[in-house]
Amino acid sequence: MNSALSSQPLADFIRQLPKAELHVHIEGTLEPELIFALAQRNGITLPYASIDALRAAYQFQDLQSFLDLYYAGASVLIAEEDFYDMTMAYMQRALQDGVVHAEIMFDPQTHTQRGIALETVFAGIARALREMRSTAGISSRLILSFLRHLTEEEADATLTAALPLREAYADLWTAVGLDSAERGNPPERFARVYARCKALGFHLTAHAGEEGPAAYVRAALDALQVERIDHGVRSEEDPALVQRLIRERVPLTVCPLSNLKLCVFNDMQQHNLARLLRQGAMVTINSDDPAYFGGYIGDNYLACAESLELTRNELVKLAGNSLIASFLPQSEKDRHLKQLSEFTV
Ligand code: HPA
Ligand code: ZN
Predict the structure, then answer these.
(1) Is the CB of residue 289 below 6 angstroms from any atom belonging to ligand 1?
(2) How far apart are CA 185 and CA 161, in angstroms?
């Protein structure tokens, strides 16, 4: 027993754990202050009188009520500099939380639909990620995410439009994802575009089992052939599926404060993260849309630790899962895992 580690305040212990964030939407890191600053810079009038009034509107009943505000917030992103500023703010915040590697989702269709060039989106985000890699040593990847409320043809066209940029951003863009309104938009709808992405050598992940049923998790595994499931908490409704996730070591990128804010669980004590972890599932803790859900990754770890009575060794296990489940090369995973092993109490 390492008494220095076990007597440290919990928040400090959590902050020091080397960890990966695997589920964060960069557009969901736009804080109200930055939304207002970018609106002013770009001459956009927002339908809110103040930063506080905007923040006060962050009361959600379900995923759709959040998505409406999230897409409205993203409309202030116009120039490369805007994407850069947003990404820098997130990366600096992540660094404070002990994130050593971030796999960041972005929604190109949210921007191209408004007439923003795909290259502007890539360039601004990538400039911040590369700068943080060289100045702070934090690594990152980009997960280009298709909007599931749109058609598979539109997803396919987005992929086609992005492919000419692949070489220029090969250090970052290595994966694709699927997000937005889950109910009524099952994974099967995107089977062909996912098959194309797989043939192109991209890593594959998809949101499933957040609001949608366990059957969507099965479909993401079988029809889309994903390597990870984003959220996946509703898998618990299908015990055979949970056994499969454990057996096949499929990572779940769980976002506890998001689940709370979007009413997937009524309170944190009811969250199933600890149950899934203790059964042997490869669960990880992530922030999803931290500007909207009231906390960054460290806050998510802390909320779980307190409400679910996670032990310090369980927190180390969760951080280890995040490194193992990342799309990093094995040598880099091993380097971070070695550092993490110092924290076992
Ligand atoms: N779920 C689905 N789509 C999303 C989310 C989410 O939590 N955040 C941003 N897009
Ligand atoms: Zn998400």
Answers:
(1) yes
(2) 23
All structural domains of the chain: 3-343 (3.20.20.140)
Burial of residue 181 (number of CB atoms within 10 Å: 0-12, 13-18, 19+): middle
Pocket test for ligand 1, best of 29, 207, 258, 261 (most atoms within 8 A of CB): 207
Q: Which residue has the tokens 């280009």?
A: 144
- Would the pTM count as exceeding 0.70? yes
Instruction: Please count the residues of the chain.
Output: 345
> Would you say 179 and 107 are in contact if contact means Cβ atoms under 8 Å apart?
yes
pLDDT, tens digit (0-9, with 9 covering 90-100), for 285-334: 999 999 999 999 999 999 999 999 999 999 999 999 999 999 999 999 99
Residue 314: active-site member: no
Residue 33: C-alpha distances to residues 30, 74, 75, 234, 286 (Å):
8, 13, 14, 34, 22
